[in-house]
């Protein structure tokens, strides 16, 4: 059973969001990494890139497949997790500890459309 963490928000495309003020930390869910298998590469945006809710911002590649990443919020990238350049497998070890990007949100109300942990659990149990 995939781990779902209470207090995070989730996109139907299997990204998670943790907000602190107007900064949103974004990663992929435990369910997503378990579906992908061993992650071998993470394609991340650059600092200062603009990301748009629902638009692609990167990709995760595994030995089995490549999966596009979709931004759950809009804003400006303020940090990327450089550790994933050398150790993409950290996402398999703990998908919630090993975030992909931090974004300064341009519209915090966009998080209203995201799923809470209960709704996300329901979604993955139906897949």
Question: Could you list some keywords that capture this structure?
Answer:
single chain; 127 residues; alpha+beta; six-stranded antiparallel sheet; three-stranded antiparallel sheet; 4 helices; 35% strand; globular
Strand content: 25-35%
Helix content: 10-25%
What is the straight-line distance between the termini?
A: 12 Å
Give the topology string: H per helix, E per strand.
Answer: EEEHEEEEEHHEH
Write down the overall geometry. Answer: globular
Secondary structure: number of strands: 9
Structure description:
This protein is α+β, with helices and mostly antiparallel strands. The chain has helices at 30-36, 83-86, 90-93, 117-126, and strands at 9-10, 15-20, 23-28, 39-43, 50-51, 56-62, 66-70, 75-80, 101-105.
Topology diagram in text:
Blueprint: E1 9-10, E2 15-20, E3 23-28, H1 30-36, E4 39-43, E5 50-51, E6 56-62, E7 66-70, E8 75-80, H2 83-86, H3 90-93, E9 101-105, H4 117-126
């Amino acid at each position: 059973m995939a781990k779902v963490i209470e207090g995070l928000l989730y996109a139907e495309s299997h990204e998670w969001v943790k907000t602190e003020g107007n900064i949103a930390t974004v990663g992929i869910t435990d369910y997503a990494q378990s579906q992908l298998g061993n992650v071998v590469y993470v394609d991340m945006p650059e600092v200062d890139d603009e990301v748009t809710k629902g638009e692609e911002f990167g990709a995760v590649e595994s030995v089995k497949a490549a999966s596009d990443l979709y931004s759950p919020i809009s804003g400006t990238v303020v940090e990327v997790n450089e550790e994933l350049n050398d150790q993409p497998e950290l996402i398999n070890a703990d998908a919630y500890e090993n975030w992909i990007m931090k974004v300064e949100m341009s519209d915090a109300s966009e998080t209203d459309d995201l799923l809470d942990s209960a709704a996300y659990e329901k979604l993955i149990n139906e897949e």
